[in-house]
Amino acid sequence: MNATQEKLKEKFGQALVAAFGTEYAEVDPILVPASNPKFGDYQANVALSLSKKLGQQPRAIAAAIVEKLDVSEICEQPEIAGPGFINLKLKTTYLEAQVNSIYVDSRLGVAKTKTPQREIVDFSSPNIAKEMHVGHLRSTIIGDSIARILEFRGHDVLRLNHVGDWGTQFGMLIAYLREVYPEALTTANALDIGDLVSFYRKAKQRFDEDEAFQETARQEVVRLQAGAEDTLHAWKLLCEQSRQEFQVIYDLLDIHLNERGESFYNPLLPDVIENLEKSGLLVKNQGAKVVFLEGFTNREGEPLPLIVQKSDGGYNYATTDLAALRYRIQQDEAKRIIYVTDAGQSNHFAQFFQVARKAGWIPDDVELVHVPFGLVLGEDGKKIKTRAGESVRLRDLLDEAVARAHADLEVRLQADNRPESPEFIANVAQVIGISAVKYADLSQNRTSNYIFSYDKMLDLKGNTAPYMLYAYARIQGISRKGGISFEELGDKAKVVLEHDTEFALAKYLLLFGEVIGTVEQDLLPNRLCDYLYDLSKKFNVFYDRNHGVRVLDAEEPQRTSRLVLCDLTARTLKLGLSLLGIQVLERM
Ligand code: ARG
Which of 142, 345, 346, 370 maximizes ligand 1 atoms within 8 Å of its Cβ, making it the mutation to test the pocket? Predict the structure, then answer.
């Protein structure tokens, strides 16, 4: 609900009490945006909903409410329509005052939350010795945007990178490297991630085929967990190697994260088992320790167990997540914990959440949220692959986006006969390329799969980053052309609304705060993308030669007023895009 709706709701509450008594104070006025601007801005349907209870005709109820309703500061005289709708049309003076107030507000009307709390966003979380893949890219982009929005709302956000840096795979890898390339375990930078990935593949193959090797690998895991110096050293080197590779991607995307990998929780794992044992949830099942789950069954319809300790005594992904969850509640004092991963892990989250709840580890005021997302598909609709059929390296994918943005830009500059410096071109291409990839991801409802298409994401038309960046740069162009700086308009600049397109733009600008509030709740950044896209479109109609208004060559006070609307649109785009992790360009 936006500020105006809230105020109206309050006024309706008072009117209902005056008309029907105090027990009607909390009745929902059922305010909805008007279906047709002809009828005003909002419609209240409360009269229809009360008809039965009051035993009166809705129109009579509507009349009784309107008689007591004092909304004269906000609306024109309310009108009763049809069977008993109350139509409300916002007053121009009210709208102007609202716009003027967000104009002087650096937060553009986005209030800080009244209930700031510690929130954890667990995102990105790639695995050591494995390549970061497009699933991690989605997690990184979506998680970062969610974190930015929560931070902007004033929450105390902990961005955690739950790196997969622990487990049996290290035994395998270290055992294998000891045999074939021992230097890698003692010398920094002896491997790059490509080598590491291929060694990992070979180690796995060896592990699957060779029983003696399996035993050696297990020994290495035991040594690692016991903290044997040489194994630990080797493990650290491998982690460092991967970390450097991940950092390249984070730098390209401007992502800031705190690494707290799975290994961090290693000392806390025995306590998880002990605690589950005490609470009577732990069951021995074929040598393993498990907790049986409700609502999950195997193909035979039997209840499914969640394994928390394998028969060889080892712990797994779920045990670590249980330990991490306890730590985050007890030590980090998180009130909401948000996990951003592909939808394929939905069961994993539902399962360990359930176990933690049953164990009584989740206080009532703590919320656990899995934020799932779909797959990234190639243009053929299948899982994205290179032409050679291999999985795509993120570096290559981002570089390609920038290279294409570069080529497009050269063509555009040539066509416009605009000479620009190589630095300018490189910077613009970089920003457009990276933004295009981020925006293409964020603008989809994250729960669906999406097709990765360079052509689409780099298109200057449509719901794309370049379109939005262009709208922003175009507004900055107005200020350059008019030789005015928006900052110098000053706090005294005021809007006066006359033209339809001015009303439409102004009303839309006022909805920004509400959109941010919604994303804070449902964690769907695509709603913000949709809003920014519609805002750009409304701006383009307002500024359109035929359908809109003149700006620079208008008379005062319209000229200043329209410049204020231009500036507000640009600032909203800039702030909105920054919450998506996207930087704007003054010229492009
Ligand atoms: N490392 C995991 C993967 O690559 C993601 C971890 C997500 N976070 C968590 N707490 N389980 O799939």
Answer: 345
Cα(457) to ligand 1 centroid in Å equals 27
d(CA 484, CA 496) in angstroms, rounded, equals 19
Q: Determine the distance separating the centroid of ligand 1 and the alpha carbon of 261, expressed in angstroms.
A: 10
pLDDT score recorded for residue 544:
95
User: What is the separation, in whole angstroms, between the first and last Cα of the chain?
Assistant: 36
Closest protein CA for atom 9 of ligand 1: 162
Tokens of 288: 């393993």
- Final residue belonging to a domain, choices 321, 352, 377: 377
pLDDT average, residue stretch 230-253? 92
Q: For the whole prediction, is pTM greater than 0.85?
A: yes
* pLDDT at residue 35 is higher than 90: no
Distance of CA 536 to the CA centre of its chain: 20
Q: Which of the four pLDDT bands, split at 50, 70 and 90, describes residue 225?
A: confident
3-state secondary structure 281-326: CEEEECCEEEEEEEEEECCCCCEEEEEEECCCCCCCHHHHHHHHHH
The answer as to whether 26 is a domain residue is: yes
**Span 295-313, average pLDDT:** 91
Q: Looking at the CA of residue 324, tell me the nearest atom of ligand 1.
A: 10
Q: How far is the CA of 87 from the centre of ligand 1 (A)?
A: 50
**What number does the ligand 1 atom closest to the CA of 341 have?**
7
Q: Tell me, what's the pLDDT at 44?
A: 95
Same-domain status, 140 and 172? no
Q: How far is ligand 1, taken at its centre, from the CA of residue 136, in Å?
A: 9
Q: What is the pLDDT of residue 39?
A: 86
Which of 377, 406, 422 is where one domain is finished? Answer: 377
Helices (H), 125-268: 134-152, 168-180, 193-209, 211-226, 229-253
- Residues 39-70 pLDDT 10s: 899 999 999 999 999 999 999 999 999 999 99
Say if ligand 1 is within 6 A of residue 339 CB.
yes
Domain region containing 49: 3-90
**Structure tokens, 179:** 């045999």
125 lines ligand 1 (CB under 6 A): yes
Q: Atom 6 (ligand 1): residue with closest C-alpha?
A: 125
Q: What per-residue confidence (pLDDT) applies to 191? A: 79
Asked if residues 240 and 188 have their Cβ atoms less than 8 Å apart, the reply is: yes
Contact partners, residue 518, CB within 8 Å, separation at least 6: 524, 527
Same domain, yes or no: 250 and 361 = no
**H or E stretch including 528?**
helix 526-542
Q: Determine the distance separating the centroid of ligand 1 and the alpha carbon of 271, expressed in angstroms.
A: 21
Among 133, 136, 162, name the best residue to mutate to test ligand 1's pocket (greatest count of ligand atoms within 8 A of Cβ): 162
Whose alpha carbon is nearest atom 11 of ligand 1? 321
Query: How far does residue 200's CA lie from ligand 1's centre (Å)?
Result: 19
Query: Are 7 and 82 members of one domain?
Result: yes
